[in-house]
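Take one record.
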Amino acid sequence: MKIFPIRFDRNEFSGSFGDIGTDLPLLMGMILASGIDAASVLIMFGMMQIFTALKYGIPMSVQPLKVFATIVIAHKLTGPVIFGGGLAVGIMMLLFTVTGLIDKLAILMPKAVIRGIQFGLGIQLAMLAFNNYILTGAKPQTYILVAITFLTGLLFLGNRKYPPAIFIILIGLIYVTITGENHSAEIISGFSFHLPLFNLKFNRNDTITGILLLALPQIPLSLGNSIFATRQMANDFFPEKKITTRKISYTYSLMNIVNPFFGGIPTCHGSGGMAGHYTFGARTAGSIVIYGCMFLIAGLSFNF
């Protein structure tokens, strides 16, 4: 496995926060809805980030499967169904990869459709944030905080000397200090060492249920956004890497074949995640390593 140069500097640190606004709510939502082991979820999510970082050498994001997560949260599906569905997604994508079908589908997919998927996903996430936070009667100070962080992000966007996420994090720390919404004592009191739980608590029925309820609705979005749109964005930002559709499909499938056996949720790559890391300053896989270590340390160290 060829490892590309990886940097760890302020821009990579800033870039590491480019996807957390999407990932963390989905992770926590699935954990709370299904009752699966939080430590295993966080550890495996962090490990998949680091694996991907070393494999690609660029800010190739790893995200929860969005359609998958939405259905799990809405219907409070159980862990075995999640793991069975995740394994099914991994096997299906592996079949697309080894048969070469993924390359044939990529040829048939026009670039205009890929751009439309990227644009539509951005609008969808923006509307989700609007509906969940703006229309739900949030506290007045929340609106002020959102406005300040948004303007700060715009002000420092593209600034290599002063990347935006550093200031956004600082604003958040100031906010929790002033408002008293600091739960560091509770977090510290929950410190304890954990390893991911080896998991075989899903059977054929769970897998069939996962296929019908989760895998089949997820595959079209995965092909469009996780594979084709991600390859297009990788080639836009890093044309010298010459990343192929088959390589992305292969790592996607491998993650989802491994995750279920250690209590990890199904994961994918994503064009929006890569755009977030890149926009916040990331140019190497250093941001993904930092991001993965955050989840890995949290899962290994704290009792949730």
Q: What stands out?
A: DSSP finds 14 helices and two strands in the chain. The first helix runs from residue 10 to 15. The beta strands are 63-64, 267-268.
